[in-house]
Automatic annotation (TrEMBL):
Pfam (any one): CarboxypepD_reg
Places the protein is found: Cell outer membrane
Name of the protein in question: TonB-dependent receptor
Top-level taxonomic group: Bacteria
Signal peptide: 1-21
Bilayer topology term: Multi-pass membrane protein
TonB-dependent transporter Oar-like beta-barrel domain sequence ranges: 240-319, 324-1010
UniProt GO BP: siderophore transmembrane transport
Molecular function terms, GO-annotated: siderophore uptake transmembrane transporter activity
InterPro entries (UniProt xref): Beta-barrel_TonB_sf, CarboxyPept-like_regulatory, Oar-like_b-barrel, Plug_dom, Plug_dom_sf, TonB-dep_rcpt-like
Amino acid sequence: MLKRLHLLLALFILTVNAAMAQITTSGISGKISSNGETVIGATVTATHQPSGTVYRAVTNVDGRYTIQGMRPGGPYKVSISYIGYKDKVFNNVSLNLGESQNLSCSLQEDAKQLQEVVVSGKAGLNGTKTGAAMSINAQQIADMPSISHSIADVARLNPQLTTNGQSGSMSFAGMNNRYNSFQIDGVMNNDVFGLTANGSNGGQAGSQPVSMETIDQIQVNIAPFDVRQGGFTGGAINAVTKSGTNEFHGSGYFYGNNQDLVGRHYKNMDGTYAQPYDDEKETLFGFTLGGPIIKNKLFFFANYENSEKSYPTQYTIDSPDVKFNPDLAKALMSKIYDLANRQGYDYATSWADKDKNVKSQKAGLKLDWNINEFNKFSVRWSYVDAKQTLGLGGIATLNTTDHLYDFKSKTHSFSAELQSRISPNLSNEARVSYVSVRDERTSGQPAPSITIYKVGNGTMNIGNEYSSMANGLKQDIYTLEDNFTWYKGNHTLTFGTHNELYKFSNLFLQNLYGCYYFDTPDDFLNYYNGCGADGFGGDGKYIKNFYFTQANVEVTGNPRWAPEFSAAQLGFYVQDKWDVTDSFQLTYGLRMDMPLFFDTPAENAKFNEWAAGKGYGFKTNQKLASTPMWSPRVGFRWDIEKNRKYILRGGIGVFTGRIPFVWLSNNFTNTGVQTSSYSAKNNSAVQLIMDPNKQTQNADNLKATGSQLINVFDKDFKFTQTMRVNLGFDFNLLGIDWTAEGIFSKSLNDVYYKNLAYEESGKTLSQTSYMNWDNRPLYTKVADAKSFTNIYAMYNTSKGYSYSLSLSAAKHFAFGLDLNASYTFTHSESVSSMTSSVAQSNWRNTHTYRFSNNPELANSGYNVPHTVKASAFYHFNWGTNKLFTTTVGLIYQGQSGSPYSLVYSGDINGDNGTSNDLIFIPTDAQVDQMQFLGTDAYTAEQQRANLKQWLATTRYVKDHRGEYFERYGDNLPFESHFDFHFGQKFGIRTGKYVHALELTLDIMNVANLLNKDWGRTFSSGYNSEFVSPITYKGDGVFQFANPSDMPLKYPSSYYSRWRGQVGLKYTF
């Protein structure tokens, strides 16, 4: 396999010319005239003044010129000369990443006098973009209030972006956060495997993929109609790092806080106030250094950064405001110890009360070489090493120390880029890159996972987290890119290719040490009381669920077997950017992406025979089809009055992404050949075995009932594709720059799962005596599929859409004040939100009340309707030579809360899915017909009364009695957060250098500092996606707790407090 991969790499190196598909540079273009006539042969010279880098072009027969591949930023000096005419000079030109600034002019005769034009920013509105986009420069990054120093913090003012402050995930225009693209210097840094919430490598270890101190510019794209940009159906973030110049510049910085800079209190839902943190610490320090190796020729830029964070575990077994019952938990734990002792297994653990620790180191080196006036070459290396402790409990979850795990991640990134000006009309850009990612989870002493529900009103987890028993990932990603550009008259023709090659090794054996679930403490005690002196003999019917997976060593040769597979995605495209007139530009192009798959999962002859008999047309040992995926796009920009005061722009096009490769990896892991998965529900044969290495004893008892978990693709499955329409109007009114933006996205190929091991029985729940008002279909195991635990098949769907409407305003005042504000309304619907990395979870999380294998179109898990954003930044230069700078910034971000569903805890329709059945919201008369099972806390009649009270007083459900709760039918309350930044810089000039010392203070959620009721951040119940207020016990019996024990929202302990950070930074 590796030989084939290397062969393909060699083939591309030999046949592909050179360039890039993800934008890392800027450019200038324009038309030169004199007295209304075009000037042919005028020389345009652009000099990047900090580095002395020179770019040149000559106007063509239409008087037009274009220079691409330029360093973003500046300042540039651009001079335009022609014999017999006065030179025109543009000074202080600054270029935005990914944009080509228009510098057109009219020359005058007689070259005795030099004309200078100062360009200190945009002259009018942005006259280059066609689709929804946003550029952020280094100064804006430095001014942004931030403690996490993350890309999400910097990009959050984008009107179409919604962020989750707790997870760091970013959703653009209501799209799946796994469908985004993130590039650093054109190198892929998004998590292509699809495991991290923030979408970047190292995210699971709590790290950012790059030090923000090294970023020069960031570009956010949602609808770029430039066909060079691909690999996403959500949003794309392109970042370029700083480079060295002809002068030595550097920085040393330190940022930190402790518990004294974290709010002591916030208001809980019951009116009480949370307890203060007694121990919290964050430090971040590092340096940057850049300069010349050879003046005007060779430059370097280097950096190092170290970050350490320690957060206290607020909710421990001794915390006063937890939902679980501490005394009951201790009593149950003593029984666990006793069982282990009787079984002769030495088991030791304790309650998790340790701090959450996050550590990371980042380093990088970049070299830029001006080979000559026509060729520029750069190489870059970066490294991130991070570790984070995960698995800590919460207000309703109590975990033991062996349930915690450390997530470790290391990322190496290498890239090389060549930009060439072949002739006045031809240019080329090329890049090759390699990214290595190594992720690993490590737990404490191996132990089975034991979960007991309803310990009070919470859950206790003992033993290893079920997904961390054997979990490690290796990724190797190669990229080859090329753009060849031909400037022909008023046309700019681009021919390019972007190719990605992937190699994965994914160790992922869930439930390797066994997982046991007890529905109540009473169930556990009933099992325990039946055990004999050897710790065995309890009745397994009290074990709600048992799961166990093992590698079949006789096949794999390794008990910790990890599937390995390789794939590629090749992209080819052609585009014409046509300057139809001086004020109207049309861009149209066609892109073709071709996914390739080099490996095949193992053959399961038994399943393949079964699937063929059903007419499904797929089998375990099949590759995805390598089908060309076409993406035509057309965009336009019209400067209506030719003065950049009113600009209409937009376009329509198809965007092709990729699926997270973890979904493909599931098919290699779960063929039913290399691994065997066992499950049992209330099975008397199951025993609670404390030795993690003896779980096969249960497996032997279960072999008669089948042991194969199968994951497959539909034979016609394709990567994701979206058709997107964008229309924007930029205008200046009353001295304010306004933008009205509309984005509509329609799914062409999206993704959902079916469980083919279960089918509709032909009956409905309404035919039962206990739920005769609920018409949902009931399910049963497919008669001839008894030997398969579950069969999860991935399909495409064209259902699903989203739209986003926004209005934003910006105003710059000459005295240093910048104001921005925006409002966005978003609505998104999907068949499945695909929020997980595991097939079973993705199927289960598609909550439904209709058809489990044909889910209805409903609100998506990324549907956040209302977003309001505003910012104010003030810069004041003062002191001798204006070398002292005071900066004050305030950001407001308000958005609808996270969407959630209400589902039954349990399996009410028999489809073998837990917590996937949306509740029917009963009337009081229907509640009277329901049967309840009493608990120690509440009798059956008390539960009936509690449910009626909850239904009558809870938002959304009180207005939808007698209806089903729709998937993600409601959102948590609107959240408002203010973030503050203050910076004071003291500069002093010594020779040609300015040395500066800057003191900074950032306060996130500063409103909580003023009022403890303000700034709360909520999570929905016990889960980020759903709440399970009603438990279905089986046989028509339900349980319901007190409404105060099951609120729909809980405030986040950390993010509901104000959080400060002080900083000290030296620059020269």
